[in-house]
Amino acid sequence: xxxxxxxxxxxxxxxxxxxxxxxxxxxxxxxxxxxxxxxxxxxxxxxxxxxxxxxxxxxxxxxxxxxxxxxxxxxxxxxxxxxxxxxxxxxxxxxxxxxxxxxxxxxxxxxxxxxxxxxxxxxxxxxxxxxxxxxxxxxxxxxxxxxxxxxxxxxxxxxxxxxxxxxxxxxxxxxxxxxxxxxxxxxxxxxxxxxxxxxxxxxxxxxxxxxxxxxxxxxxxxxxxxxxxxxxxxxxxxxxxxxxxxxxxxxxxxxxxxxxxxxxxxxxxxxxxxxxxxxxxxxxxxxxxxxxxxxxxxxxxxxxxxxxxxxxxxxxxxxxxxxxxxxxxxxxxxxxxxxxxxxxxxxxxxxxxxxxxxxxxxxxxxxxxxxxxxxxxxxxxxxxxxxxxxxxxxxxxxxxxxxxxxxxxxxxxxxxxxxxxxxxxxxxxxxxxxxxxxxxxxxxxxxxxxxxxxxxxxxxxxxx
Length: 464
Description:
Structural class: alpha+beta
Strand content: 25-35%
Mean pLDDT: 94
Low-confidence stretches: none
Shape: globular
């Protein structure tokens, strides 16, 4: 069996915790590992690591590679040069596996869902494998326990065998009244977005119902290299695999999945999965409440205090605060879209940004200056680089820094500082066993991350 992990989502409904450049699959939401890492580890219970392929958007590629590299030495990754939804992502991934000689059973999973019972998940997958071997495309349905308006639905009324159903039709995300009817009816399942099929069966179905995607997909030749060419991929229609294939095919079957599944697609979902206090509140981080009930209070950095809240979501990050009614969390995406439209950077990136070597936090910025706190993990190393538009001044706070500046090496201790002139090649490393923290002050007319020219990089971010 082979696995395809879809790791290109934006997670806009979990703003302000999720950002366009650091979406929810990369987040550790009250857990020790990210949703992406947990997804990969879950597949390892079923599939060999060399048979797991992940596909992500180009802007998330480095972060996805960094996280997966903490689990497996050589993660197999495809980079989408444009966001085109799940149908193009899956079709290109399947073509990749076929070109590598693998017309095998494939399990397709999103990277940003929570599954609490890995054993039940594994059992359902192994049962479904037999159906996929018989030429079916398997979808995994979740029996609903609430009238959820944030999920698509699958109508399944007839048993195919003792553990699966035939699929009557797929339904789009309903309004509340329709969702209540689906729940009462009993024949409807939530669409988990998890699928299984043989590679060639999927391509035949794609050819029949989405010929435009099929034709473009056939133009890729992964026998030569693993590049998803922009000029070809950009021609793909932006469409989900449900719209393109699943809603039309007759060989779809539904295997019910009762494994504590949640797609964590909203703050209400985060509230649902977390432990409640005696007043039915979920409190994460540093919080203080008085006379609050049925609410989620989330603190990332500062104390968040609430008085008299009822059915409220309150989320704090270092640069944004969200407050909304708990039953209106699906509309957080509209706020995200508005911020994107007016080019407000809080939709795009956090003040804390993670890199393969550690992270940095923007402390302050203004006209012609920007101040960061940079934390380099033990044995981490920034690339050898230069800047055309800014100078930098570094002050070591803790740990010891190895600085390369214009082909000369320096060891800096706490309290030491160094100036990095414009256009001079330089690098910052931490060859020691404790974290290195420095303050960086940038000065210049153009203070953007794009003003980085890399010459050498141990994380493979320099193209040959």
